[in-house]
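Hey team,

Sharing the Lipid-A-disaccharide synthase run so nobody has to redo it. Sequence (449 residues) first:
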Amino acid sequence: MGPKTIFITSFHPLISRNILSTPLIGRLIGENGLRVVVIAPQKKKSFFERELSGSGAVLEFVNTRLQLRDKLLRYLSLAALDSRSLKIKRSSKMRTTSAFFGKIAANSFGLRLTRYLSARFTPRGLFDDLLGKYAPLLIFSTDVQNEFDVRLLIEAKDRGIKTVGAVRSWDNLTCKGALRVMPDKLVVNNEILKNEAVSMHKVRPDAIEVIGIPHYDFYTDPKKRTPREDFFKSLGLNTAKRVLLFAPAGDRYVKENTVDRDILKIIDKNLDDNWQVLVRLPPTDKVSNLENFNALGRIIFDRPERFFATPKNNEISKSSDRRLADSLFYCDAVVSGPSTMAVDAAFFDKPVVLAGFDGAEKRPYKKSILRYYDYDHWKQVLRSGGAKLCLSPEEFALEFALAVSVKNSGSRERGELVRGQCQFTDGGSTGRLLSVILKTAQNDGKKII
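Structure output:
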């Protein structure tokens, strides 16, 4: 009999940061004597071999080509979930099968039907050889709504293998459709996600564990930051000037994207000569009409490493995440589009201003950047007051001036935002995840719906 084995999936670009960059693999191997097998896309083999070199993990790769059944079941899962986020999506973006089904299936019957059809018709066989080769004790699905995670979870259940599944991100339970398969234990970042899992996806509360955000463990220790002079030098920043960090929305959010360019112009107009702007480009998206913009020579672009030709396939390396942490640690204020950068900035207690208007244009709501802030996952962030949403250039200029001029402005509200989104700030989220995995592997799994 070989060593006891844990499978860990990595089929979404954020998993390389969210999970694989944490101490989880090392602790499973070093502290518990387990064999860890990371399963990833064949087309990304070179990245994972480089990034996980020396980790002790065994790497296995599979072909990640979706079948028609995967796509149809995804459409059905989107249709089966009744959330404000998906209602907005259906009215503005989802002109497909899911938009049609959404009118008739977004109810409890649709949820049951989705799970029944997923159990019956999800493609099987992709993981047969790996399951036979390693006979894993447990599957850790890092993204329970990813089509390939769903396939592996269903094959694991067919074989009676225990499973732990993670909700990958703050918007997944309201934006990515109904949970199609239930792991033995579901881990989530916070109580907000737990409540959504219970109320919208009908998961039993006692089958959910709130663990915090594992990759934020790295953010909690100031000693892990790059020395200030070294960091500034690496990006060409002036150590004598303050730093405004700008995280543009990107083309995925805005078609014919002139919004980010216009916001950057407003930022530049409202900053005096004591400031410089660090533009953190999104790692998995493009930003049109922006990269050649450089007013007064004080705008610096930080381009995360690109490992693949298509931006949406890009992975986030440890070095790229370290640079983001350094940027947040050393900046003085943040301007962001509708992304998790608002939470990142609040975690570092940096004033954050959100651009909720379309730059110099006036776009209809269905095409506006504003609609994204009406998604469910933004409720707590905006309610906390820890991130200031501005609906016009004039409002933006006022909030922006406050953010860059008043020290510690809004710190209490940012603390409220962090308590809601992160749950824990003790650097122990990876440890809590490890505990859930080990306990589930040691005990008999139970159905959670």
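The mean pLDDT is 92.

Ping me if you want the raw files.
A.
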